[in-house]
């Protein structure tokens, strides 16, 4: 019995060597806590409060890890998180913004005026992957978001600031676009910045996240006896095979950061020419324009394959809304790096880990509408990949709890700084604006989709 070849680790080892050199030569953050006068008391308070919530963070990390729930099915996970927030004196709204498993809690100063005072949304994901559970560490994201919100709002008792802080539970990121559904329901109305974290094998202030579109294809041919009358058939599986090979050949002419991956299925038995075949295709790119260009090229291949095989084809783009590339915001990232230096972590600059090591997230949709922070926080060894059973194991370790607590302190500190510092807010908005027009029209043209309901 033959075994699959073991993939070579040569490329990964070479990449790790290059990354190690960059890490060794990385300079400390250009700005440190001393550059943010007047915030020492708030930072000290939020850091102490985050540490005081370590047991809560550990409970969330372990509980969600032990009870993983997939997209739009996170009823228990939502309840666990909302209950904790309510135990700390907040009311929560559940099933908000058109998504059954989303929730929101709000803190606002007594004098809050949306025309004069800022609003920060702290986001918490909590969906898991099928079969392998929290192999993307969303249990850590949830723990960091919830305890970061609690630390920030508790610090405001002694360091009062005008403004509003939202904690938004954002389900259905894996293979879906939960945040985009919430956006269409109004989740970002009045929000000036949104912040969250993601677990990884490195501490990185800003990393590349590619946009993603989903294409469903159905080829429809004519069934026939594969031996006695094959000439009377039109083979739908042939069309799927041609499309699969065409995508493979196109890869040579794709930018190195672009990705296309597909599955296909068709036919019932070898003696019958398949009359139908299906493909499920992911298209990814670092830019919105390049994502749309790559989408057009994939569609041309699919239609060409149908023409060659003499079959009909139905295409459905974006059963769920597309996810856009993340816009990293330099002032937010800079402030994040300063908070993590206090925790003994060095948040590496963008580009330390190659852009080709990139996945997709629906936070990209958020960051195209408001200034956004989405840093990576080290949970596992650097050679452990997301979406693997190995990372799922690391997501339930003491290192995962440390990551959640350090992140909670950082999220709280960045949030408090945003409320306190109008120059910081102005810089974040200017950085956002200079990245160009928002790709809302492109996003809406990609299809709305309908979230699953239980």
Question: What this model shows, in words?
Answer:
- This protein has helices at residues 10-25, 40-52, 54-66, 75-87, 138-155, 178-184, 236-250, 288-309, 330-342, 363-367, 389-394, 398-420, 422-434, 440-445, and strands at residues 92-94, 103-108, 119-124, 164-169, 193-195, 198-200, 211-220, 259-266, 276-285, 312-317, 372-373, 376-378.
- It contains 14 helices and twelve strands.
- The protein is elongated, with a radius of gyration of 24 Å.
- The longest helix is centred in the last third of the chain and has 23 residues, at 398-420.
- Helices cover 40% and strands 15% of the residues.
- By secondary structure, it is of the alpha/beta class.
- A six-stranded mixed sheet has the order 1-2-4-3-5-11.
- The protein starts with 9 loop residues before the first helix and ends in a 9-residue tail after the last helix.
- Strand 3 (119-124), helix 5 and strand 4 form a beta-alpha-beta unit.
């Amino acid at each position: 019995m033959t075994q699959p070849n073991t993939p070579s680790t040569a490329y990964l080892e070479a990449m790790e060597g290059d990354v190690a050199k960059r890490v060794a030569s990385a300079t400390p953050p250009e700005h440190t806590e001393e550059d943010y006068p007047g915030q020492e008391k708030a930072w000290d308070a939020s850091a102490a409060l985050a540490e005081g919530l370590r047991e809560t963070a550990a409970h969330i990390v372990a509980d969600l890890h032990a009870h993983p729930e997939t997209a739009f099915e996170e009823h228990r996970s939502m309840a666990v998180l909302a209950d904790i927030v309510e135990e700390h004196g907040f009311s929560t709204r559940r099933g908000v913004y058109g998504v059954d498993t989303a929730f929101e809690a709000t803190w606002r100063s007594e004098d809050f005026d949306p025309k004069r005072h800022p609003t920060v949304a702290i986001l918490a994901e909590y969906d898991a992957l099928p079969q392998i559970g929290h192999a993307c560490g969303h249990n850590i994201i949830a723990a960091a978001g919830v305890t970061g919100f609690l630390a920030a709002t508790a610090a405001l008792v002694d360091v009062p600031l005008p403004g509003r802080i939202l904690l938004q539970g954002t389900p259905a990121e894996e293979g879906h676009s939960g945040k985009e559904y919430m956006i269409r329901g109004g989740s970002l109305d009045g929000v000036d910045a949104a912040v969250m974290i993601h677990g990884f094998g490195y501490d990185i202030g800003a990393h590349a996240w590619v946009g993603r579109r989903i294409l469903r294809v159905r080829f429809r041919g004519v069934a026939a006896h594969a031996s006695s009358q094959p000439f009377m058939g039109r083979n739908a599986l042939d069309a799927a095979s041609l499309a699969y090979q065409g995508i493979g050949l196109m890869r040579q002419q794709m930018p190195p950061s672009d990705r296309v991956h597909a599955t296909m299925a068709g036919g019932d038995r070898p003696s019958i020419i398949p009359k139908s075949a299906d493909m499920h295709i992911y298209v990814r790119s670092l830019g919105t324009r390049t994502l749309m260009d790559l989408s057009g090229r994939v569609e041309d291949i699919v239609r060409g394959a149908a023409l060659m095989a003499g079959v009909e084809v139905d295409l459905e783009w974006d059963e769920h809304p597309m996810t856009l590339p993340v816009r990293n915001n330099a002032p937010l990232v800079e402030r994040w790096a300063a908070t993590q230096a206090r925790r003994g972590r060095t948040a590496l600059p963008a580009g330390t880990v190659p852009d080709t090591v990139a996945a997709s997230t629906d936070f990209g949709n958020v960051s195209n509408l408001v200034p956004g922070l989405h840093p990576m926080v080290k949970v596992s060894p650097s050679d452990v990949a997301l979406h693997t059973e190995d990372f799922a194991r690391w997501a339930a370790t003491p290192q995962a709890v440390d990551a959640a607590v350090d992140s909670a302190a950082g999220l709280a500190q960045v949030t408090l700084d945003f409320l306190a510092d109008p120059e910081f807010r102005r810089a974040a908005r200017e950085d956002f604006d200079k990245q160009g027009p928002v790709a809302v029209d492109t996003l809406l043209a990609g299809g709305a989709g309908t979230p699953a309901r239980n």
